[in-house]
Amino acid sequence: MEELILLGHGSGGGLSHELIENVFAASFANPLLLPLEDASLFPSPGERLAFTTDSYVVQPLFFPGGDIGRLAICGTVNDLSMRGAAPLYLSASFIIEEGLPVADLKRVVFSMAEAAAEAGVQIVCGDTKVVERGAADRLFITTSGIGVVRDGVDVSAQNARAGDAVILSGTIGDHGITILSQREGMQFRSGLESDAAPLNGLVAAMLAESTGVRAMRDPTRGGLATTLNEIAGSSHAGIEIEEGKIPVSEGVEWACEMLGLDPLYLANEGKLVAIVPAEDADRIVKAMRSTRYGANAVLIGRVTDEHPGRVILRTRFGIKRIIDVLASDQFPRIC
Amino acid sequence: MCLAVPALITKIEGTAAEADLGGITLEVNLTFTPEVKVGDYVIMHAGYALSVMDRREAEETFELLAQLAESNESH
Amino acid sequence: MRVTESFRSPELVEKLKERIAAISRTPIRIMEFCGTHTHAVCRYGIREMVPRTVEMLSGPGCPVCVTDVRSLDYAMALSMVPGAIIATFGDLLKIPGSRGTLQHARARGARVEMVYSPLDALKLARRNPGNSIIFLGIGFETTAPTVAASIVQAEKEEIKNFYVYSMHKITPPAMRAILDAGEVALGGILCPGHVSTVTGWKAWQFLSDVYHIPSAVAGFEPVDVLLAVAELVEQHERGTARVVNAYPRSVTAEGNRAARETMARVFDVGPAPWRGLGTIPDSGLSINEEYAAFDAEKRFPVDPGETIEPKGCHCGEVIRGVMTPGACPLFRKSCTPMNPIGPCMVSSEGTCAAYYLYG
Lengths: 335, 75, 359
Hints:
Chain B is of the alpha+beta class and about 80 residues long. Helix content of chain B is about 25%, strand content about 40%. Chain C is about 40% helix and about 15% strand. Chain C is globular, with a radius of gyration of 20 Å.
């Protein structure tokens, strides 16, 4: 096999087939994919299907705790899970910049296979394109996913109601700070890792405890603050959270102090926020804490009928602050 | 302005130092604080140490605050 | 990190709140001169913690907010120099000049890299010998020494492709300008804590000697700020006008002489334009003759283009403390973080952004 990705690998000819055989099919091997037909067929898995898509353009491709491949699988698995769907089948499309080392591609694809196996999903179709040097930033991945929603499960950002409890599955800011620490121009070694993880197991445990879960979202870009605002807006409800209850790891907290960032706005790739009926909250938190990715689950606040559409934070000092969405990304500052 | 954090110096090589900030490892330049020793806390801004934290002063400030607390109570 | 945690202790915060409430009788206006104080005051809700007699005002302490439009335009023009890589603190990336921000420049093809330290910019220079690395120097006495040191380092290593565009300023002249203008009657001044690690707290003695106004050097944790406020309120009630160091764990009387010497070695002090305050003599730092080889202005005399002030913007008055963000007709209407008109809303340490974010 070649060492570097060439334009020819995207041409559909012999080089393409070699790439598919040696890289993709080798790692994604499953009976639905392997005939390598134009489309994969499977019997309908249920009454209500969930369908989602996302693209991944993260730089650097590899970072502590994960890589673009793991993100691509977990991100789509999680989007399905956030609607209470059990994820089943994924597609994976790759746009590769000419010159990318094949070894890097193999590493990404292997990581995707691992994440898919952990999540119990299959990658059943895909595509590869190669573009000229400079036309893409090394590698872009798009994954779409299909899942099935059981009867009686109705999870939507519009469902939050006054009195509901707000639960967060664990520490915030880990992914955002990890990626930042890998940039050229930011000189710190964090010892932190991205939290990228498939959350369908966690969600299954929560739904097993209570089918009354109202809403779930994973706070990716824009962080917890943005996600809570989305839910508050969609539900026309107010949300109030306690600063002291929000778990932030020490390293993330100090990186934020140093760079002038607010962990509430940092990306997370393995966390969820859930709105649940108040009477189920303790049970659900307990169930979450017995899972791998929910060990630090905690009740952080309540939904209220005051200030509909607004998110309010009660600080450690008892002062209330409005938590708004940011216009765009936070940048580190010096002043 | 100015964001600066208290970092614990863990290693020194000339003016280059490594410091710990809650588990994060940073590079800190000691050009302005040549007297720093391993184990000191420095106030770090933009990659440079600007002062060595005086822990005795920190303790004294607490004492002062404790006194304030007492005088509050006597109001 | 136990020390810092203690300065955030809710119990101590309560005690200080009670103390201030117990001693404050006459109204006092306290002005801070540090963007990080603006941010801290809003983040911790200090205004809600102090009695109605204490009014906290923000002054020209945000180095980004006080940078004039023409300087920003010059930086934008530098970004279009062929082969240039602009190295900048994140603070500047979204600040609008007359024709967009550095982010717009990047979208138009300029190379703009965000850095945490001027040392990162030096690294960029070493790694990209075919490019000119131009570092945008903003900040007051806390940051200027670090930039000066990096220039000295560049000279030592014979790095030939590292330049600094200095927009650095120093704090005391701005304080004097505010006090001389007399637009707001101030009863106390919160002195910038980290600037003071460099200048020493004696640098604020002129506030007592010339202006008879009490001042307190303050740190940035909630206990630090409240302690300084308590000191000022106490002096105000007593009628004294001393400089008090309420941040003794980091600030000494003499400050950091090595830092000041490095600044003096590289920079000349001269007049500088301050948004909202006009040109203030002896307030700006420019690279001196000896280090001219590192001066971006000398090496790249670009045309900043026509200066267009943001229409209807009242940042100048906000910076001078004569208008609170709420009083600006654009605040929350046409000027929001989503669509900022002036730097006070763009910069996270700008007064308007702090008021908007922290309610």
